[in-house]
Amino acid sequence: SGNNFEIIIIDDGSPDGTQEIAEQLEKIYGSDKIVMRQIISVLFSSGTAYIHGMKHATGNFIVIMDADLSHHVSLYFIKQKEGNFDIVSGTRYKGNGGVYGWDLKRKLISRGANFITQVLLRPGASDLTGSFRLYRKEVLQKLMEKCVSKGYVFQMEMIVRARQLGYTIGEVPISFVDRVYGESKLGGNEIVSFLKGLLTLFATT
Question: Which EC class is the enzyme in (predicted)?
């Protein structure tokens, strides 16, 4: 693309072999392009990984995505330049976006979570539980200062807080393909935490 880039990989105990792959990539591309860091977290918390990753990010824009190849590259920077957006979020539920490889249960959970969120929070974005996003670095830093949620509800709060603070949000349809290796950390405890966090956001925003 001609753009300067760096890839920061944060391993928070994921079961998909992230650390081993990152170490291989670092040997191939060099530590100036591939930055590997580990954190220890008792509960799944994407927010913890974001904070840890930002400490090492040097660019003006930060693209956040899962490291297990569930996400495919989209036209994030083109969309950002079109509207000079502060945030560009991938959406599975708009335009030609979609989900492939999920069973009916997983689809119902995702759809249900987004539907409830739309009704209660009216965020003005179509996909709040996805994690494939582009942020201006200074915007991400400000949002991290405001957000208090943990786990999967963290993604929702980021968008809700962004709307409150007047940041602009663009959306890019993405095709989400279920992971080929490893397994999801989504379980009963995460779903309960999600619902509790959603009600807390509803009551406080």
Answer: transferase
Q: What is the pLDDT of residue 51?
A: 78
Q: Does the pTM of the predicted model rise above 0.85?
A: no
Domains belonging to the chain, first-starting first, are 1-59 (no CATH), 61-204 (3.90.550.10)
pLDDT along the chain (205 residues), means of 10: 78 74 88 77 55 84 75 73 92 85 82 85 84 91 86 83 93 77 58 80 81
